[in-house]
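Protein chain data
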Amino acid sequence: EEEQLISIAIDEVVSHLSPSSFFLSLPRGKSKGLAGFVQQALEIVEVYRECGSIRETARRLSVSRNTVRKWVRRYREEGEAGLYDRSRRPKRSPRRTLPEVEERVLELKRERGWGRRRIAHALGIPEGTVRHILRRHLPEEERRPRKKRRVFYPARWAWDEEEPFRLAQVDTKDILDKGTLGTRLWDHLRKHRLPRYQWTFLEARTRFRFLAYSYSLSVVNGLCFVALVMGWLRAWGTEVEVQWQEDWGSEFGGENPHHLAKLDERYYRPFGARLCRAPKGRKGYQGRVERSHRIDDEEFYIPCLGEVTTAEEFLALAQKWQWYYNVERPHFGAGMEGRTPMERLRELGLDLPDEFAAFPVVLLDELAVIWASKGGHDVLAYYIG
Protein backbone atom coordinates (compact mmCIF):
# COMPACT_ATOMS: atom_id res chain seq x y z
CA GLU A 1 0.00 0.00 0.00
CA GLU A 2 2.88 2.39 0.81
CA GLU A 3 4.58 1.71 -2.54
CA GLN A 4 1.28 2.35 -4.33
CA LEU A 5 0.91 5.77 -2.62
CA ILE A 6 4.48 6.74 -3.60
CA SER A 7 3.81 5.75 -7.22
CA ILE A 8 0.62 7.87 -7.30
CA ALA A 9 2.51 10.86 -5.86
CA ILE A 10 5.26 10.56 -8.47
CA ASP A 11 2.73 10.38 -11.31
CA GLU A 12 1.02 13.50 -9.94
CA VAL A 13 4.30 15.47 -9.89
CA VAL A 14 5.33 14.35 -13.37
CA SER A 15 1.95 15.26 -14.84
CA HIS A 16 2.46 18.87 -13.74
CA LEU A 17 5.99 19.26 -15.05
CA SER A 18 6.33 22.15 -17.50
CA PRO A 19 8.42 21.84 -20.68
CA SER A 20 11.05 24.14 -19.20
CA SER A 21 11.38 22.11 -16.00
CA PHE A 22 11.63 18.95 -18.09
CA PHE A 23 14.59 20.22 -20.09
CA LEU A 24 16.24 21.88 -17.11
CA SER A 25 16.41 18.44 -15.56
CA LEU A 26 18.33 17.07 -18.53
CA PRO A 27 22.15 17.00 -18.52
CA ARG A 28 23.74 19.52 -20.89
CA GLY A 29 26.40 18.90 -23.53
CA LYS A 30 27.22 15.80 -25.49
CA SER A 31 26.83 12.47 -23.71
CA LYS A 32 28.38 9.14 -24.57
CA GLY A 33 26.11 6.53 -26.18
CA LEU A 34 22.41 7.04 -25.46
CA ALA A 35 22.88 8.50 -21.99
CA GLY A 36 21.55 11.81 -20.74
CA PHE A 37 20.26 14.30 -23.26
CA VAL A 38 20.33 11.89 -26.22
CA GLN A 39 18.33 9.28 -24.34
CA GLN A 40 15.58 11.77 -23.55
CA ALA A 41 15.45 12.98 -27.16
CA LEU A 42 15.29 9.39 -28.38
CA GLU A 43 12.39 8.76 -26.02
CA ILE A 44 10.46 11.58 -27.73
CA VAL A 45 11.15 10.00 -31.11
CA GLU A 46 10.04 6.54 -29.94
CA VAL A 47 6.77 7.82 -28.47
CA TYR A 48 6.04 9.69 -31.69
CA ARG A 49 6.69 6.58 -33.79
CA GLU A 50 4.37 4.62 -31.54
CA CYS A 51 1.43 7.03 -31.61
CA GLY A 52 2.11 8.94 -34.83
CA SER A 53 0.86 12.21 -33.34
CA ILE A 54 2.92 15.23 -32.39
CA ARG A 55 0.18 16.52 -30.07
CA GLU A 56 -0.18 13.17 -28.28
CA THR A 57 3.61 12.83 -27.89
CA ALA A 58 3.82 16.31 -26.38
CA ARG A 59 0.97 15.52 -23.98
CA ARG A 60 2.50 12.24 -22.79
CA LEU A 61 5.96 13.69 -22.14
CA SER A 62 4.82 17.16 -21.00
CA VAL A 63 6.85 18.98 -23.61
CA SER A 64 5.89 21.48 -26.28
CA ARG A 65 4.85 20.40 -29.78
CA ASN A 66 7.73 22.44 -31.24
CA THR A 67 10.14 20.36 -29.19
CA VAL A 68 8.66 17.15 -30.56
CA ARG A 69 8.85 18.50 -34.12
CA LYS A 70 12.51 19.48 -33.67
CA TRP A 71 13.69 16.06 -32.46
CA VAL A 72 11.59 14.12 -34.94
CA ARG A 73 12.91 16.24 -37.82
CA ARG A 74 16.52 15.84 -36.69
CA TYR A 75 16.14 12.09 -36.33
CA ARG A 76 14.69 11.78 -39.84
CA GLU A 77 17.48 13.88 -41.39
CA GLU A 78 20.52 12.68 -39.44
CA GLY A 79 19.56 9.65 -37.43
CA GLU A 80 20.89 9.25 -33.90
CA ALA A 81 23.69 11.78 -34.55
CA GLY A 82 21.06 14.49 -34.92
CA LEU A 83 19.93 14.00 -31.33
CA TYR A 84 23.11 15.41 -29.86
CA ASP A 85 22.88 18.99 -28.64
CA ARG A 86 24.40 21.28 -31.28
CA SER A 87 26.91 24.06 -30.78
CA ARG A 88 25.39 27.51 -30.37
CA ARG A 89 28.48 29.19 -31.76
CA PRO A 90 27.51 31.78 -34.38
CA LYS A 91 28.45 31.09 -37.99
CA ARG A 92 29.88 34.60 -38.39
CA SER A 93 31.65 36.79 -35.81
CA PRO A 94 32.48 40.09 -37.56
CA ARG A 95 33.75 41.69 -34.33
CA ARG A 96 35.98 38.80 -33.28
CA THR A 97 39.58 39.65 -32.44
CA LEU A 98 42.00 38.99 -35.29
CA PRO A 99 43.99 35.72 -35.00
CA GLU A 100 47.31 37.58 -35.15
CA VAL A 101 46.27 39.73 -32.18
CA GLU A 102 45.34 36.62 -30.19
CA GLU A 103 48.71 35.08 -31.02
CA ARG A 104 50.49 38.23 -29.84
CA VAL A 105 48.53 38.20 -26.56
CA LEU A 106 49.50 34.59 -25.88
CA GLU A 107 53.11 35.28 -26.84
CA LEU A 108 53.40 38.17 -24.36
CA LYS A 109 51.77 36.09 -21.64
CA ARG A 110 53.88 32.97 -22.09
CA GLU A 111 57.25 34.48 -22.97
CA ARG A 112 57.22 37.59 -20.78
CA GLY A 113 54.69 36.69 -18.13
CA TRP A 114 52.82 39.98 -18.52
CA GLY A 115 49.48 40.50 -16.85
CA ARG A 116 46.21 41.49 -18.53
CA ARG A 117 46.62 45.23 -17.95
CA ARG A 118 50.12 45.49 -19.40
CA ILE A 119 49.20 43.37 -22.43
CA ALA A 120 46.11 45.49 -23.06
CA HIS A 121 48.14 48.70 -22.79
CA ALA A 122 50.89 47.40 -25.09
CA LEU A 123 48.49 46.23 -27.82
CA GLY A 124 45.89 48.97 -27.46
CA ILE A 125 42.96 46.61 -26.84
CA PRO A 126 40.47 46.40 -23.94
CA GLU A 127 41.53 44.47 -20.86
CA GLY A 128 38.37 42.36 -21.10
CA THR A 129 39.40 41.21 -24.58
CA VAL A 130 42.74 40.01 -23.22
CA ARG A 131 40.96 38.17 -20.41
CA HIS A 132 38.68 36.30 -22.82
CA ILE A 133 41.59 35.37 -25.10
CA LEU A 134 43.54 33.92 -22.18
CA ARG A 135 40.50 31.99 -20.98
CA ARG A 136 39.99 30.43 -24.40
CA HIS A 137 43.55 29.36 -25.02
CA LEU A 138 45.44 28.85 -21.75
CA PRO A 139 45.30 25.48 -19.98
CA GLU A 140 42.99 25.40 -16.99
CA GLU A 141 45.85 25.00 -14.51
CA GLU A 142 47.43 28.24 -15.76
CA ARG A 143 44.17 30.16 -15.32
CA ARG A 144 43.32 28.81 -11.90
CA PRO A 145 43.99 31.45 -9.19
CA ARG A 146 46.69 30.59 -6.72
CA LYS A 147 45.74 29.75 -3.18
CA LYS A 148 46.81 32.30 -0.63
CA ARG A 149 49.67 31.06 1.53
CA ARG A 150 49.48 31.34 5.26
CA VAL A 151 51.67 34.00 6.83
CA PHE A 152 54.05 32.55 9.40
CA TYR A 153 56.35 35.54 9.94
CA PRO A 154 55.67 39.05 11.30
CA ALA A 155 57.24 40.60 8.20
CA ARG A 156 56.15 43.75 6.42
CA TRP A 157 54.28 43.60 3.14
CA ALA A 158 54.44 46.38 0.56
CA TRP A 159 50.73 47.20 0.93
CA ASP A 160 50.96 47.50 4.74
CA GLU A 161 52.35 51.03 4.44
CA GLU A 162 50.29 54.02 3.34
CA GLU A 163 53.03 56.68 3.55
CA PRO A 164 55.70 56.70 0.83
CA PHE A 165 59.26 55.68 1.80
CA ARG A 166 58.17 54.06 5.06
CA LEU A 167 59.22 50.71 3.64
CA ALA A 168 61.85 49.99 0.99
CA GLN A 169 62.59 46.64 -0.59
CA VAL A 170 66.34 46.51 -1.19
CA ASP A 171 68.19 43.82 -3.13
CA THR A 172 71.13 43.16 -5.43
CA LYS A 173 71.04 41.60 -8.90
CA ASP A 174 73.77 39.59 -10.60
CA ILE A 175 73.58 40.84 -14.18
CA LEU A 176 76.04 38.20 -15.44
CA ASP A 177 73.39 35.50 -15.86
CA LYS A 178 74.03 33.45 -18.98
CA GLY A 179 70.62 31.81 -18.89
CA THR A 180 68.93 35.22 -19.01
CA LEU A 181 71.26 37.24 -21.24
CA GLY A 182 72.27 34.52 -23.66
CA THR A 183 75.80 33.68 -24.72
CA ARG A 184 76.40 36.78 -26.85
CA LEU A 185 75.54 39.37 -24.17
CA TRP A 186 77.18 37.28 -21.45
CA ASP A 187 80.45 37.30 -23.40
CA HIS A 188 80.03 41.02 -24.15
CA LEU A 189 79.66 41.88 -20.45
CA ARG A 190 82.78 39.90 -19.51
CA LYS A 191 84.87 41.03 -22.48
CA HIS A 192 84.34 44.74 -21.79
CA ARG A 193 84.47 44.39 -18.00
CA LEU A 194 81.16 46.09 -17.43
CA PRO A 195 79.74 46.28 -13.87
CA ARG A 196 78.32 42.94 -12.80
CA TYR A 197 76.07 43.79 -9.84
CA GLN A 198 73.07 46.07 -9.63
CA TRP A 199 71.96 47.57 -6.29
CA THR A 200 68.27 48.41 -6.12
CA PHE A 201 66.34 50.52 -3.61
CA LEU A 202 62.60 50.22 -4.36
CA GLU A 203 60.00 52.27 -2.51
CA ALA A 204 57.48 49.54 -1.74
CA ARG A 205 54.24 51.47 -2.21
CA THR A 206 54.94 53.35 -5.46
CA ARG A 207 57.77 51.20 -6.95
CA PHE A 208 60.01 54.28 -7.24
CA ARG A 209 63.62 53.11 -7.58
CA PHE A 210 67.21 54.23 -7.05
CA LEU A 211 70.03 52.23 -8.69
CA ALA A 212 73.76 51.82 -8.28
CA TYR A 213 76.36 49.34 -9.61
CA SER A 214 79.51 47.58 -8.51
CA TYR A 215 82.06 44.98 -9.56
CA SER A 216 81.87 43.17 -6.21
CA LEU A 217 79.40 42.53 -3.41
CA SER A 218 80.69 43.83 -0.09
CA VAL A 219 79.37 45.34 3.12
CA VAL A 220 81.28 48.55 2.39
CA ASN A 221 79.55 48.92 -0.96
CA GLY A 222 76.21 48.21 0.71
CA LEU A 223 76.75 50.85 3.41
CA CYS A 224 77.87 53.34 0.79
CA PHE A 225 74.60 52.70 -1.05
CA VAL A 226 72.68 53.33 2.17
CA ALA A 227 74.48 56.63 2.72
CA LEU A 228 73.97 57.70 -0.90
CA VAL A 229 70.23 56.96 -0.97
CA MET A 230 69.44 58.36 2.46
CA GLY A 231 71.48 61.49 1.75
CA TRP A 232 69.46 62.00 -1.44
CA LEU A 233 66.13 61.55 0.37
CA ARG A 234 67.07 63.98 3.14
CA ALA A 235 68.37 66.52 0.62
CA TRP A 236 64.91 66.60 -0.96
CA GLY A 237 63.15 67.05 2.37
CA THR A 238 61.91 63.49 2.96
CA GLU A 239 62.04 63.08 6.74
CA VAL A 240 60.12 59.83 7.31
CA GLU A 241 61.94 56.89 8.94
CA VAL A 242 62.82 54.42 6.17
CA GLN A 243 62.82 50.69 6.87
CA TRP A 244 65.37 48.98 4.65
CA GLN A 245 63.97 45.47 4.13
CA GLU A 246 66.83 43.35 2.81
CA ASP A 247 67.59 39.68 2.34
CA TRP A 248 70.22 37.71 4.26
CA GLY A 249 73.11 38.19 1.83
CA SER A 250 76.60 38.88 3.10
CA GLU A 251 76.61 42.27 1.33
CA PHE A 252 73.87 43.34 3.73
CA GLY A 253 75.63 42.14 6.87
CA GLY A 254 74.99 38.40 6.85
CA GLU A 255 73.12 36.58 9.61
CA ASN A 256 74.93 37.44 12.87
CA PRO A 257 72.37 39.37 14.97
CA HIS A 258 75.04 41.20 16.98
CA HIS A 259 76.78 42.34 13.81
CA LEU A 260 73.48 43.45 12.29
CA ALA A 261 72.61 45.41 15.42
CA LYS A 262 75.93 47.28 15.23
CA LEU A 263 75.44 48.08 11.55
CA ASP A 264 71.94 49.35 12.25
CA GLU A 265 73.05 51.53 15.15
CA ARG A 266 76.12 52.99 13.47
CA TYR A 267 75.16 53.36 9.80
CA TYR A 268 71.36 53.30 9.49
CA ARG A 269 70.04 55.15 12.56
CA PRO A 270 72.06 58.34 11.95
CA PHE A 271 70.09 58.77 8.71
CA GLY A 272 66.75 58.05 10.32
CA ALA A 273 66.69 54.58 8.74
CA ARG A 274 66.27 51.11 10.20
CA LEU A 275 67.76 47.79 9.07
CA CYS A 276 65.14 45.04 8.60
CA ARG A 277 65.18 41.49 7.27
CA ALA A 278 62.76 39.62 5.02
CA PRO A 279 61.98 36.06 6.23
CA LYS A 280 64.08 33.31 4.71
CA GLY A 281 62.42 31.36 1.94
CA ARG A 282 59.55 33.85 1.60
CA LYS A 283 60.33 35.73 -1.61
CA GLY A 284 56.90 37.33 -1.63
CA TYR A 285 58.05 39.88 0.92
CA GLN A 286 60.57 41.12 -1.65
CA GLY A 287 58.28 40.46 -4.59
CA ARG A 288 58.18 43.97 -6.04
CA VAL A 289 61.92 44.49 -6.17
CA GLU A 290 62.36 40.98 -7.62
CA ARG A 291 59.75 41.76 -10.27
CA SER A 292 61.53 45.00 -11.12
CA HIS A 293 64.73 43.02 -11.76
CA ARG A 294 62.88 40.94 -14.31
CA ILE A 295 61.79 44.18 -16.02
CA ASP A 296 65.45 45.24 -16.05
CA ASP A 297 66.35 42.12 -18.00
CA GLU A 298 63.49 42.33 -20.47
CA GLU A 299 63.47 46.06 -21.19
CA PHE A 300 67.01 47.24 -20.44
CA TYR A 301 69.81 44.67 -20.38
CA ILE A 302 68.74 42.35 -23.18
CA PRO A 303 67.89 45.11 -25.71
CA CYS A 304 70.56 47.66 -24.69
CA LEU A 305 73.58 45.98 -23.09
CA GLY A 306 75.22 45.18 -26.40
CA GLU A 307 75.36 48.89 -27.32
CA VAL A 308 77.90 49.90 -24.60
CA THR A 309 81.57 49.02 -24.31
CA THR A 310 82.81 51.04 -21.32
CA ALA A 311 81.70 51.45 -17.71
CA GLU A 312 81.09 55.16 -18.34
CA GLU A 313 78.73 54.43 -21.23
CA PHE A 314 77.03 51.76 -19.13
CA LEU A 315 76.37 54.12 -16.20
CA ALA A 316 75.12 56.87 -18.52
CA LEU A 317 72.64 54.45 -20.12
CA ALA A 318 71.58 53.16 -16.70
CA GLN A 319 70.93 56.76 -15.63
CA LYS A 320 68.52 57.16 -18.55
CA TRP A 321 66.91 53.83 -17.75
CA GLN A 322 66.32 54.84 -14.12
CA TRP A 323 64.69 58.09 -15.28
CA TYR A 324 62.46 56.28 -17.78
CA TYR A 325 61.41 53.67 -15.20
CA ASN A 326 60.44 56.31 -12.61
CA VAL A 327 59.04 59.16 -14.73
CA GLU A 328 57.83 57.81 -18.08
CA ARG A 329 57.15 54.07 -17.92
CA PRO A 330 53.53 53.07 -17.04
CA HIS A 331 53.15 50.38 -14.38
CA PHE A 332 50.26 47.95 -14.07
CA GLY A 333 50.86 46.25 -10.73
CA ALA A 334 48.45 46.46 -7.79
CA GLY A 335 47.35 50.05 -7.21
CA MET A 336 49.24 51.49 -10.20
CA GLU A 337 46.58 51.44 -12.97
CA GLY A 338 49.01 52.50 -15.69
CA ARG A 339 50.58 55.36 -13.72
CA THR A 340 54.29 56.01 -13.31
CA PRO A 341 56.02 55.79 -9.90
CA MET A 342 56.50 59.57 -9.93
CA GLU A 343 52.79 60.13 -10.56
CA ARG A 344 51.93 57.73 -7.74
CA LEU A 345 54.29 59.54 -5.37
CA ARG A 346 52.52 62.82 -6.07
CA GLU A 347 49.11 61.24 -5.58
CA LEU A 348 50.22 60.12 -2.12
CA GLY A 349 51.20 63.64 -1.12
CA LEU A 350 54.87 64.04 -2.06
CA ASP A 351 54.97 67.10 -4.32
CA LEU A 352 58.44 66.55 -5.77
CA PRO A 353 59.77 67.72 -9.15
CA ASP A 354 60.91 65.29 -11.82
CA GLU A 355 64.52 66.09 -10.87
CA PHE A 356 64.00 63.91 -7.79
CA ALA A 357 64.28 60.95 -10.18
CA ALA A 358 67.76 62.07 -11.27
CA PHE A 359 69.44 60.14 -8.43
CA PRO A 360 73.12 59.69 -9.46
CA VAL A 361 73.74 56.18 -10.76
CA VAL A 362 77.32 55.56 -9.66
CA LEU A 363 79.94 52.83 -9.41
CA LEU A 364 80.00 52.00 -5.70
CA ASP A 365 83.48 50.41 -5.70
CA GLU A 366 85.17 53.73 -6.49
CA LEU A 367 82.96 55.85 -4.27
CA ALA A 368 83.18 53.45 -1.31
CA VAL A 369 86.97 53.73 -1.22
CA ILE A 370 86.78 57.51 -0.86
CA TRP A 371 83.92 57.35 1.63
CA ALA A 372 85.54 54.68 3.81
CA SER A 373 88.91 56.43 3.85
CA LYS A 374 87.50 59.82 4.91
CA GLY A 375 84.82 58.53 7.29
CA GLY A 376 81.53 60.25 8.06
CA HIS A 377 78.16 59.84 6.39
CA ASP A 378 77.89 62.64 3.82
CA VAL A 379 78.70 60.49 0.81
CA LEU A 380 76.83 62.86 -1.51
CA ALA A 381 79.34 65.57 -0.74
CA TYR A 382 82.18 63.24 -1.83
CA TYR A 383 80.35 62.34 -5.04
CA ILE A 384 79.42 65.91 -6.01
CA GLY A 385 82.76 67.28 -4.96
Q: What stands out?
A: The chain has a mean pLDDT of 81. The beta strands are 167-174, 197-203, 209-214, 242-246, 273-277. The first helix runs from residue 2 to 15. The two ends are 107 Å apart (CA to CA).
